[in-house]
Amino acid sequence: MPRFAANLSLMYTEVPFLERFAAAAADGFDAVEYLFPYEFDADEIARRLRDHRLTQALFNLPPGNQAIGERGMACLPGREAEFAANLETALRYAEATVCQRLHAMAGVVPEGADRARLHATYVANLRQAAARVAPLGITLLIEPLNGRDAPGYFLTTQQQAHDVVAEVGAPNLRVQMDFYHCQISEGDLTRRLERHLPGVGHIQIAGVPDRHEPDDGEINHPHLFRRLDELGYTGFVGCEYRPRAGTSAGLGWLRRWREQQASKASA
């Protein structure tokens, strides 16, 4: 059965961030992820994880200036030193929280930019970052984002991401496959999952089109969960969605899935 991680940036927003760890544990999650932890003390986050016996599944490197729409800088020429410094910041949090997966956001393409130069910068930065984190047992992740939610983002498709991974050539660089983004950008989720799973290091889910619970919208998530099991996926599935109402009240999809799997196991 997939190992689900609650995304504390989008879920449990009914309570302050540091209280969301307890809320997720109370609902039966044994792992969490979030976008950015940097407003909070790393040791305090680590204490919450220990107190509630939670695994830190994933978080992102610092994104740059979000106020002007930045989404990372890994592909941006001239910002290599900033990218390297942000990686060091993330590693301090990863060490404190014993997190083994970090997502390096590519960045938004500047108007009129030379995409070949962006690509070369991206590959070089990822190669150096992957080498930096490898001795620490950390997997570096890259994630394609859909153009509706992230206009101009450099990395948009699964194939593009896996081609970058192949070019970088680092065994600890993998792709973060978010079914939500993939459905909007490309569709054909089952075949894309089957084709690319060997290079996938993390899965995320949300209903399409409105990014609510995965029992809402056009994706058949139970089918994909079964396929993940059949394909032998053992990583985390991050629940990166915005609850329609209360987070706990909206977890009927997860309770039903767990009950179905428990019933199968006891049959």
UniProtKB/TrEMBL annotation:
Quote the EC number.
5.3.1.22
> Gene3D superfamilies from the entry?
Divalent-metal-dependent TIM barrel enzymes
Q: Where is the Xylose isomerase-like TIM barrel domain?
A: 21-256
- Tell me the domain of life: Bacteria
Keyword Isomerase (UniProt)? yes
Enzyme class at the top of the EC tree: isomerase
Q: Which UniProt keywords apply?
A: Isomerase, Pyruvate
GO molecular function (one): hydroxypyruvate isomerase activity
Q: Which InterPro entries match?
A: HPT_OtnI_isomerases, HyI-like, Sugar_Epim/Isomerase, Xyl_isomerase-like_sf, Xyl_isomerase-like_TIM-brl
Q: Which GO terms describe its biological process?
A: glyoxylate metabolic process
Q: Where is the active site?
A: 143, 240
Q: Does the keyword Chaperone apply?
A: no
Family affiliation = Belongs to the hyi family.
Q: What is this protein called?
A: Hydroxypyruvate isomerase
Q: What is the lineage of its organism?
A: Bacteria, Pseudomonadati, Pseudomonadota, Betaproteobacteria, Burkholderiales
